[in-house]
Amino acid sequence: MARQPIFIGIDVGKDWLDVAQHTSEEVRRFGNNEAGIADLVAHLEPLKPHLVVLEATGGFEFPAAAALAAVGIPVVIANPRQTRDFAKSTGRLAKTDTIDALGLALFAARVRPHVRDLPTEEARNLGAIVARRRQIIDMITAEKNRLGFALKPVQKGIQKHIRWLERQLHDVDQDLDSSIRNSPLWAAKRDLLQSVPGVGPNLSRTLIAELPELGHLSHKQIAALVGVAPLSRDSGKMRGKRMIWGGRAPVRSALFLSVWSAAKWNPVIRLFYERLRANGKAPKVAQVACMRKLLTILNAMVRDDRPWDPDIPLKQLRLQHSC
Q1: Rounded-to-integer distance, Cα 271 and Cα 283, Å
Q2: Which residues contact 127 (CB under 8 A, 6 or more apart)?
Q3: Which whole number is the average pLDDT over 59-88?
Q4: What is the spatial distance between Cα 124 and Cα 177, in angstroms, rounded to a whole number?
Q5: Quick one: which H or E segment has residue 127?
Q6: DSSP E strand boundaries for 163-275
């Protein structure tokens, strides 16, 4: 008789790891430290679980996930919104460490998310720098907004803070460039991405740090992962508007900004945008479609390790236009 597959859910906190199995209501607790993680591995390795699911919790999950992956246990770090929506769908409205661990185990058993390679420490460090850059930009924007309404006594302090933040942003950009230059693989990928008109340092850094799956998934899968694939909203005879939501907001934001430049300087994206507008599409709808088109082109380039060649997508667009 075949052994029933075992699915594990781990609720991750700063200090504790609460571990549940989908066939049991028992929850075991381990410390989220070197000794506790070693005990966790010793506990789970003999069980040979089919899948272990942890939530993304700002980095506290990586030591445990890496330790489990190192001994060959399949691990998925899941999006907290997805797991929380699943818990609500099963009637688990309360939220405790025990309930969360049990919910993650059930999520692992029912949804069975796809296992992908965990980011390396080098990639996590780059992702942290990119995230910090985004935070600094948000703070600069907020301070500039405050400056517009500030009374004279506080304007000097806000201006001083903006200048300090801008120096911090310059330092972070240098750290990013240094990290990418020091990695031959990342430097080659950066050069490949930036060969596309409209793709600048910000988008290439974001894709390298936040989208390691680029080039390894189909165009539909990568669009859904980023959150630029239109989702249906139909019910019975009602046909709702297709909308985008979810996905990786940092990548989507970087694509959004790059498309403005690409629509001006990239012949493929410009022709695509003009055709959509001529067909009556709203500007924002056309822009999102261009984001998806640009992402599809970049995905194919990385997959094939092929630099930018406008003739290939231009021929495809003209063929579509003539049909």
Answers
A1: 14
A2: 119, 209, 210
A3: 87
A4: 15
A5: helix 121-149
A6: 234-235, 238-239
Q: What pLDDT was estimated at residue 238? A: 46
> Residues near 27 by Cβ (< 8 Å), separated by ≥ 6?
18, 19, 20, 97, 98, 101, 102
Compute the residue count for the chain.
323
Per-residue model confidence (pLDDT) at position 318: 56
- What are the DSSP calls for 53-97, one per residue? EEE--TTTTHHHHHHHHHTT--EEEE-HHHHHHHHHHTT-----H
Cβ contact 18:100 at 8 Å: yes
Taking alpha carbons only, the member of 317, 318, 259, 248 closest to residue 289 is 259
DSSP for 22-59, written as a single string? TT-S-EEEEESSHHHHHHHHHHHGGG--SEEEEE--TT
Distance CA 46, CA 39 (A): 12
Radius of gyration in angstroms for the set of CA atoms belonging to the chain, rounded to a whole number: 23
Question: Residue 147: which pLDDT band, with cuts at 50, 70 and 90?
Answer: very high
pLDDT of residue 315: 60
Cα distance between residue 259 and residue 294, in whole Å: 8
The answer, as to whether pTM is greater than 0.85, is no
The tokens for 164 are 């300090």
3-state secondary structure of 235: strand
Q: How many CB atoms lie within 10 A of CB 295?
A: 25
Return all residues near 22 (Cβ < 8 A) that are at least 6 apart.
6, 7, 8, 9, 105, 106, 108, 109
In one-letter notation, the amino acid at residue 150 is A
pLDDT above 90 as % of the chain:
46
